[in-house]
Give the backbone structure.
Amino acid sequence: MSGCAAAAGHCGGFLITANNALLSLEVTESNSPERKTDISVYQLVTSVKSILYSADVIALSASHVLMAAGTVFGEIIVWSCFLSDDGLHKANAVGSIHHFFTGHEGSIFNVRISPQILSLNPNQPGRFLASCSDDRTVRIWDISDCENKTAQDPSAYATDGYDLRSTGFGPVGAGDQTVGSESCVVQAFGHAARIWGVYFRSIQNKDQTHVGLVSRGEDCTCVMWDLSWQKSSDGATRYEFTEASSIQPHIGKHIWSLDLHRLDSETVAYTGGADGALKRFSIKENDDTQLPVRPAPEPEIPGFQRKRKQPTTDRARAFAFVSPSCLLCVSTNGQVQLGHMDQTGRSTTSWEVLREVPDLGSFAVISGLPQKGLALIGNSRGLIQIYDHAARSFTDVATIGSRPLGLFFLETNSPSTQPSKTAKEITFLVCYPTKEEATLVTASGWNSDSFKTHAVTFKLPSTFVVCSAALIFEGQYLMIGSKAGGLAVYQTPKNDETSEPTLIDRRIHGREFVNHIHTVSSSSGSDGTQSDFVLTCGRDGTYCLHEMRLDGNKTDTLSMRIVHRTASMIGGNIEGAYVDELTGDFMLYGFRSQEWVLRNESKLTDIINIASGGFRRDWAFSPGSKDANACFVWRDDASLVVTHIQPDASHLLRAGGHGRELKAVDVFSAPEGGRSLIATGAEDTTVRLFAPTSLVSASPWGTFECVRVLDTHKSGIQQVSWSKDGKYLFTSAAFEEFFVWRVRAVPSFGIATNLLAASPKDDPNSDLRILSFDLLEVKEVDRGQGFLLCLTFSNSTIKIFHFSPSGCHFSLLTRGTYMTNCLTQAHFLVTGSSVNLITAATDGFFTLWDLTTTLESFYTMTDSVLEAKHAFNGSSAPADDITCEGRYQIHSNSIKGMELVPLSETATAIVAGGDDNTISVSLLRTSSTTTGPRANVATVSIPDAHAAAVTTVKVLSQHNIPDTSSNTASTKITVATSGNDHRVKIWSIVVDPAQPGTQGISVEFLLDRYSAVADVSSLGLVRKHGSVNSSDSDVPGSQNSQAQLVVCGVGMEMFGVED
């Protein structure tokens, strides 16, 4: 359970077991010439024999070992082992129990003994004990009396045979004198789930009357705590235990490991989670003798420095950044002030009064453009002024006649153009609280004699309240976002005429604010078509990428479609996005409940969480640059809180993946010059898209770089599959969820994904799992791309759909039912002019279904290609139900994995693995008759092919072997299999359809390889035109392999494969 090194001057250590026994580990010089040292492990003493969930042990001296043990029944036992000084530990060890703590409402998951604290007691040093449990509390206990205990002191409790309570659960009542009645000195509630561990931070000052702690939990959160104590006038010690801050470094569930390291004035925390990630964040320490006294807790947040500063005796009315290190603020007495912030965060922000305008005391609205050193200020009479930070000047630019609701700076430069740091002309939008219109103002020369302004009015759609705006197509069009989730696009007028919207969509972000709009990239087609890719962020927790297309056929027709939509891990409110200048990473910021969050979306990790009271408070944010750190300012009551965010506030040492075990994988191997994509689905309900990386560029991703996360599913993923061209991804889960995603690459953004459609349900409340599906590409009436889909459900039902990507709709063609067993596999088999379906089930049988007759009314078949006879409009007009033509047993129980290899028009090889640890190879021969297809099956089984269930089968290659003597050919198939035994095995199968029965099937074992991935569920194959270094260089041919085998289960790894 735990261990520690022996006291100074002794070689060895001590270990405590789950049965509450102390073991001694000694390292001595060996008398044998074969080795230099001997290691001896033996039991010293046992305490109360209880099952432990946690323990901590420290050697106070050579003769005194102190232990704390947390039991499964909520008890904490603090006891010592006393040893003699002569080294005869085994013969003279004595155990003594000092404390028996109870009170937790659950099992004790961690206990931790603090370092020695000199200031805890007046006359002697002391120690604390911290404990945590699944009751979500951290409790602090005083164990200072244990420091000076000796073997001669009587034990507070007998070591056996005493009368204990049945468990340690429940609170300790006042005045309770029974066993286990000792109560904690202080406790606090934290985390949203079970707390796995708690740790003391180091104490640097001997007079320090406070100490910090860190806890980790099932909710993927680390909580920073402050524990302080102070002697009162009556001689009692008063304790205060408060949560200072929290950070969520991992996703999914569980932070399994944590360690702390003191480095100068910071404590560096390293965490490891169930998502496989290793992360680091810093905690700013306060080594003063006492914590500062303040009216409200002002927590230390990891990785940034904070300071409060009230500019004047009144409060701030409005504020905005005018440069990365300067904040323009208007106070309630009308003062316009400039705050200069020290980027080191070690000194107080200095404030400079620029001017005093009484009108601004009652109302003011500010908008800043810090990259150009400009700000707009509007008052209640509609006067708008521009502040030029370089010239320290204020200029009246417009009088709009009524109070403005918001001011929005608009930049006209394209994404490919580097914006200038100075501006000769500005454009901004003014919106109003009551008018259904907005004013577009252009101003130039405000610091010269050639000052010009031009204003144009836009008529807004009904109930359309502006909350964001941006210019697109280099200023030709204006896009505005509403507080009700809509977008409207206007053509920028060349005169004073009122403009009407060209495009409008009321529900881009549901019914929530569209907080942010900006252009990510632009492109042009050979036909003159222009495209701008515009990013929008909303309070609905999603960000969207829109492709705005402007036709070049002199009609200037504008169209808009969403090419990407995803919900960020930020949560319910994304306020904005930008690309980091130093790293090129895509950054998001917004609010998660009451916390402001800065998130690196490229690396899928939070940079910082700041408890700021939520988005309803006034705030401003300036992204980091090469010359300045990022800065976040928010109003707390009458004060402004300024937060400088250090670049290394949270550092990703090793990126992770899914937070739970993977259940499915499929690989799209891109053509030469492209980038392959690996789609994985897991029990954490997410689908992730990974791209293989080379070892040179692996950090921090390793072999797999996650390029996108899809989290629309509500349950664990069952299967994922790509279309042949990689444009579409199909995923299935429980609740009859079957989704179709459009996947494409967008310049300057990366992989874009958009949910096109979900399959219809017979019952909206259905909880059926779609265990397997298969797809077959067909041609639409207009020669476009379509898909024939087969879905198998956990109630033994089969549904056949046609999916039209152009219309994003499903059409039900037919359905069928298979007995009472769950269907685990489904594969289309197209040969010549016939279409069949092969399914496998939990009864060990595979079944042949004839679809040819059913599909003839919908498709024509030419050269094994299905072409639609008519257009599908999404309506359901199913044909007669399909029935199985034959059942063939190939396993004794459930078939977990199955692959089909067509050999000829009449012969197909079926390779399967099952729960019976067996691999089977079946030769299916079919022939057409007047009554339907007739099939003959011959099967060869390899029993005990694995030591556990065979869960997945993957065909690696297929080669024809001609036989010149008989003028026939056999087929050599290379197959990989895996399961729950940590092994990946390679098999060679030769099938000759010309031979009768099983004589035409031969199986040869080629390779057995250990895999570190537990409970392997699926295998994928990355076919490469070039070479990518594998993480396992000892596989033959892996250094120059043309393919890589992806192994998925509890984790992922990749093997190099050569034929």
Q: What stands out?
A: The first strand starts at residue 2 and ends at 5. The radius of gyration is 35 Å.
